[in-house]
Amino acid sequence: METRDECFIAGAWRRSTSKQRLSVRSPVTEEVFADVVAADRADVDAAVASAREAFEHGPFSTMSAAERAKLVGRLSEAIKSRSAEIAHTIARENGAPIQSAEGTQSIAATMVLDTYADIGSSIQLEETRAGALGQHVTVRQLPVGVCAAVLPWNVPLYIAAMKLGPALVAGCTVVLKPAPETPLDPYLLGDAIEESGLPPGVINIVTADREASEYLVSHPGIDKVSFTGSTATGARIAEICGSQIKRCTLELGGKSAAVLLDDFDIGSSAETLLNAGLFNNGQACAAQTRLLIPRGRYSEIVEALGTAVSAMKVGDNLDPETQIGPLVAERQRDRALALMERAKDAGARPVVGGGRPSHLPRGWFVEPTLLADVDNQMEIAQTEVFGPVLVAIPYESEDDAVRIANDSSYGLGGGVWSPDTERAHLVASRLRTGSVTLNHAFLLDFRSPFGGFKLSGLGRELGPEGVAPYVEYQSIIGAP
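Request: output the structure for the sequence above.
Response:
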């Protein structure tokens, strides 16, 4: 049993006096294997005060962007030396398949930080321009201040990097709030922060339950909130921030469509397509889980995909051969099963899966599932399952496919699949969604903006555009 009692505040691990605890259960065995302190209001106050002190009086916010970028690069290097340990820890927490965990759970995070180290080395946060009346105007981008970064449990370190990279380049200080389901890997991140040489208080870490998390978001010492997670929680955060005129960035849910054009090559693309929908056990915000298939090839493609899904190995996610591991928590498993049962009652046909694996009586497992004969108005086509569940929806024409893809409350990701990349690009440009992949599974690009339309969120992360939410513009206007 691993036990931790500290929060990372002012550059060091400090013992919390909180009496609240977080029990970490294995998604495979359902047994508790770690016990971690849950930060209380006193811990949150201390973390915010530390970040405020570092912002107002420390050297960090007054450094040049290039100097801060070097520290971001050093943080990346410190994480790289712990990459395998971080990946294994996160996999134990959230059920991610170990075969891909190092790449997605730790190396991807360092790639984001390396990207911002590069962006920060040349970014211009101040410029002089000619004013309308002939004045000299200096336009400055100043750090917004102390930021709260509220993280999800599915790819926690990667999402942390998406928030830390631009915030640090801009000169902000941060209070990170990891999810209760994944409270162990932040201890490895804290050790990396210490090693990197970042000034004390620039990054603070407090893992908390819902009450203390809301206290952090509403804290008067917080200038901006960045959140990744469910649309329902995002709406609550937006409500709090709106009442305080506090800046916020929200990356929320999705129900992304994979549009398979009529020339889709099932032989060469099936594995990649399944990865786009079932990556990380389907626990990915931009997973392409709505498969839009031309009516004339519907039976052929559904049958081929069903065969591929049925061949996927389900089991202990720490086994390198496993492709689909357990979901993060019992509630997630039960929710996925309930959604599938209602879908079957509504007329959806299970091609493969549709329940719990019979050979795995313990653990929060859901069979990798393909449901056919799904109408886009069904709950299963409009609701984010966050599990290994794909739905096959037929369409009549290219225009019909675009209509169905856009007929969603979400607009985070999507994909167009065709060997004719020019045609695929034209279809992609008609989709009302933040990112669209062409014939590949990777959900985003580190140098390009990522975020959603509609209920999928507010603002953008990644790329140079990702710095904008962490700055305030100031104009110094000289006399004409």
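The chain has 14 helices and 23 strands.
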